[in-house]
């Protein structure tokens, strides 16, 4: 990736790994481990909508592709604990137009992630927003901005965004202000088709 991966994400380039992750339960498992740390299949099961045995199968599948690993044992050493190998992940469609397998796998994972992310705004509006105080409510919301740029300029925009975010993503928990809280930033980057171009006016 051009950004140099400032956020410390695991970079997925293998089409088989992309397809393995393109499953709602596996995405939910990985997100839960990345956000909340190590957990067992039994702990994860109710949060990802699967039985402990099915969750355990998905965990082993994720581990086989290097996305999660064994964590330090918990108080109950009989139960296997798992952890994410990185705080996030990233992938991209291959640049080679002849790599149809890679392009297809990237599309499949992208669609699954869009489906998962699409649920978040409504759930946030129903369950979280009503309980926020005025300061957090004022800062929350969405912005839809259209820009007209070259591919190189878009890469520079993405790089600049990651440069701003990196110190907050990677800092130690002890360094966070006492009044801090988690904030989900959904960043869609959707280049338009050639037919949508209108002469460069946003």
Outline the fold blueprint.
Elements: E1 10-12, H1 15-21, H2 24-36, E2 39-40, H3 41-48, H4 52-64, E3 68-70, E4 81-84, E5 89-91, H5 100-118, H6 120-127, H7 134-139, H8 151-170
Parallel strand pairs: 1-5
Antiparallel strand pairs: 2-4, 3-4
Helix pairs in contact: 1-5, 2-4, 3-4
CATH architecture of the domain at 1-118: Orthogonal Bundle
Termini separation comes to: 27 Å
Residue fraction in strands: 5-15%
Fraction in helix:
40-55%
The radius of gyration over CA amounts to 19 Å
Number of strands: 5
Count of discrete alpha- or pi-helical segments spanning 4 or more residues = 8
By CATH, the topology of the domain at 1-118 is Arc Repressor Mutant, subunit A
Q: What would you call the structural class?
A: mainly alpha
> What strand line-up does the widest sheet have?
2-4-3
Q: Name the shape in a single word.
A: globular
What is the multimeric organization of the chains shown?
Answer: single chain
* Name of the top-level CATH class of the domain at 1-118: Mainly Alpha
CATH H-level homologous superfamily name of the domain at 1-118: Winged helix-like DNA-binding domain superfamily/Winged helix DNA-binding domain
Q: Which ranges are low-confidence, i.e. pLDDT below 50, for 5 or more consecutive residues? A: none
Mean pLDDT: 91
Largest sheet: 3 strands, antiparallel
- The arrangement of helices and strands along the chain is EHHEHHEEEHHHH
């Amino acid at each position: 990736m051009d950004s140099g991966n400032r956020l410390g994400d695991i970079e997925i380039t293998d089409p088989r790994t992309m397809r393995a992750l393109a499953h709602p339960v596996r995405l939910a498992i990985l997100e839960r481990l990345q956000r909340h740390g190590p957990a067992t299949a039994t702990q994860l099961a109710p949060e990802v909508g699967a039985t402990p045995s099915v969750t355990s199968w998905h965990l082993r599948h994720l581990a086989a592709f290097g996305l999660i690993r064994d964590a330090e044992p918990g108080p109950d050493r009989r139960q296997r604990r798992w952890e994410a190998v990185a705080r996030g992940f990233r992938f991209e469609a291959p640049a080679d137009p002849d790599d149809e397998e890679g392009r297809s796998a990237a599309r499949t994972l992208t669609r699954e992630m869009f489906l998962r992310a699409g649920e978040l705004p409504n759930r946030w509006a129903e369950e979280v927003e009503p309980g926020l105080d005025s300061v957090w409510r004022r800062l929350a919301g969405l912005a839809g901005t259209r820009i007209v740029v070259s591919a190189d300029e878009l890469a520079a925009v993405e790089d600049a965004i990651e440069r701003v975010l990196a110190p907050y993503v990677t800092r130690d928990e002890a360094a966070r202000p006492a009044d801090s809280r988690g904030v989900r930033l959904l960043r869609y980057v959707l280049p338009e088709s050639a037919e949508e171009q209108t002469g460069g006016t946003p």
